[in-house]
Every structure is written in structure tokens, then in C-alpha cells.
Amino acid sequence: MENKTAYDKTSPHSIYEYSLKLFGKSLSQVVMLPEGIENTRNRGDLGSLVEKYFFEHVPDSNIGPDFPDADMELKTTGVVRTKAGDYKAKERLVLSMINFEKVAIEKWEHSSLISKCRRMLILFYLYEKEVSVSDRVFVLPPMLYEMPERDLPVIKRDWEFIQGKILAGKAHELSEGDTFYLGACRKGAGGDKEPLRTQPMSSEGAKARAFSFKQNYLNYLIQGQSSDSNLLNSPNEESIENATQLRFRPFEGMSIAELSEKLNYWKRDKNHKGFHRELANRILKGKMDSIPELKKAGIEMKTIRLKRNGIPRESMSFPGFNFLEILNQEWEDSVFFEKIESKFLFVVFQEDALGIERLLCARYWNMPYGDRLEAQRVWEETKRRVAVDATNLPSARESKVAHVRPKGRDGKDKALTPQGNLHLKQCFWLNSSYIGEALRNI
DNA sequence: GCATGATCATGC
DNA sequence: GCATGATCATGC
User: Which candidate, A230, A256, A260, A411, has a CA 20 to 30 Å from the CA of A121?
Assistant: First the structure.
């Protein structure tokens, strides 16, 4: 193969131009691969295969970017098709492992993350389970990524938040929900299969984590920056939190009737269960605007309606789980884990002394470490019990944090259990009392 | 007043 | 058609 002179390793543009050859093709269509390689199914393999056989490149070291002379890191990542027919990220984009000791003493501007990932060439292939990695097609044009001006403040703040937690001796308490675009995601074997890592300010071992761009942030990169309505560009709105709160502030204290009038949206009837959420949506979206930041950060918005005593009227539900699937699942691969580690935007309503419900506030929240461990315990207990008797699962009185309850369309909405019976579909809930307590701590 | 069981409307 | 967020409804 004559690829060796096909591009200039010191030029980002040349590398980019060369990578265009992959667009619309699979690796096996573009280069000759040695026998046997085409059958690999390990997703991590495609990146290294591309580097080795397409770029014919062997990195000098594993610190710094893959192409040091061009100051460019190579990333290969999967996309899937949406129902609308375009593409979205299959998962988060892992940037680099977090070395707790190192990050603790770095400055953002000269951090190992910046020096490695300041400039990236991102190749997007269509993920199809049955297709071997070398046959997966690069369905999107390669992307030459440099941290955009408008995202930089958020990413920097995310990085500094993660560093702050490490400096506080809380590396083991890190969560994706701590941050907005740049996450500290779990990396490495789940369970107890991997030794814990050391951290500088505590003797407590911490699970391995990596810097990553959140899935939704990646989606926004894929879709291109379409919207110009960017809260962060407005003056006095230096953070996503502030921007959000400024959006809600004018409506705080308003009664439901006033909100309906202002937002031109009324509760249809007793069974209109999405009413409060729609009010919140309308506040967020304003007139024509939207808040791209919220989407990019993968924020989970939840409406909470407090009774006069400050306790939510209802517990908080999460997506349903499958009785058969959970048996073979690890905690960190579960949807509930994903939710538990995300950042929430609570839109809070409360009934006043006269019984009139009003918008109280909007607040960001993510679950503290100890409670995440408790949620995990409930999940593990659920998994254990499903195997024995799927009709007897953890109830609200068994944990202060979470429980399991039905969630279905109606009494006929059932699913198969390991015992071979049909049983009402279930989901995980956060206890209303727990949410009430969490709100008091904000 | 709370835990638990049982839906409902919506958007894709 | 179905998953999802959210609420309704009942019994103690």
C-alpha cells in the first residue's frame, strides 16, 4: 500500500483531507485488511484498526494526541439512525482516562485533557450489532473538532468541578450528573472486577473514570449548530444554572391559573397528566427560543408538586425495566444507573396556605454519593428478587431512597417473568419523602 | 397521610 | 403500538 505519503502527519488539514476517503465507506472497502481481522466485533477495535491500517500510523506514546505533530487526536465513534432518519450518537465519547493524581495538580489551560483533545478528528460509523466492525460504514463526514468558543466556558467549568471534587478527596463520589457537557463517566469493568484507583486527597479507593463528552453534546455536534438562540451569549448569564433560573424567575410565585393565562395553556381535565410538565416546557422555550444547552447537557427535567408540608404529592418514576433483561445486567449498564448519574432540573410547584398551587422555583440537582449507593442496593435487591419471585419487589418502606412499583398502560400491560408468568410491568421510583428531603438540601 | 396499586395522555 | 412521565385511586 502506498498510503505512507498520502498525507502529511504534521498537518491537521492534510489528515482531515485524507480521512475523507473513508466517508461513505467501510474500512474494509478502503484498505486491505489481514485475514481474520474483519470478523472482530469489539467496538474499540475499529479505532485502532483505522489508525493502523488506514492511517498506517503507530503513535509514539500514549500521552498526548495520536498525531502529536498535528496536535490532533483521532476518535472513532458509533452513531445510530433516529426514527426521523438522521443520525445520533450511540453513546458518550470517551476522551481520556482521568488520572486523579495528575488532574489534581493541573491547570485547565495546560491540562492533559486539553493537550490531548484540544483538536480531534472524529469519525462516525453506523453502529449495527450484526455487522463486523471493519464493515461498518462511515455514514457522516469526518469532523474536525476544536472546542468552540461558546462551549468552552461550560467545558472548563465542568473540568474544574471534577478537579474540585478530586481535591476535596471525593474522587470516589464523582458522577456524570455533576457536570454539563464534559462528564466523568465510569470506565472499565463493572462490579468488583477491577481494582480501585488511588486518589491524592483521600485514602478511599475510587472507581476508574474517564473524561467524556456526553451523548447529547455529541448529538449537538453531529446535528451542527443550528440554533442561534444561545442563552450563554446573553449578558449576565455566565452559567447554564443562572441562565435557566433567569428563565423561570419571572414566573416564580405565579399560580397555576396565572401561568395558564400567561403561557396560553390550560389543563384539559382531571386526567391531563402532562399539564405541569408542559407549563415548564413553555417557560423554558420562551417565545421562539429554546435552550440548546439543556439538551446538550442531557438534563433530566422533572416536575415536582409539593404539598403544603413540603413533601411531593407523588414519587418520581423512571423508565420501566424488563424482568428477563435485568437478570443478566450489571448495575452500571442499567437505565436506572444512567438516570441516577444524570443531572436533573427540578421544576417545583407548591400549594400555598390557601390551597393555591404556585410555581416555586427551578433547581438543578444530582444525587449525592451515599444515596446513589442506596439506589444501587435497591437495584441489586430487585435483580435478586426478580430471579426468585418477580411479584415480590422492594417496596417504599424498605429504603429511604427508592422502590419498585407498577408502571403500565393498564392492568393488561404485563411482561414475562423468569418464573414463566405474566406480571404487571414495573419501574424504579424515587420515594416522595426522599425527593422532599433532597429539595430541602438544595 | 402514606404506601401501594392502577392507569392516562402524549409523542414518537 | 409502545415507552414514558405523571397522576389518579384505594385501602389502611
Answer: A230
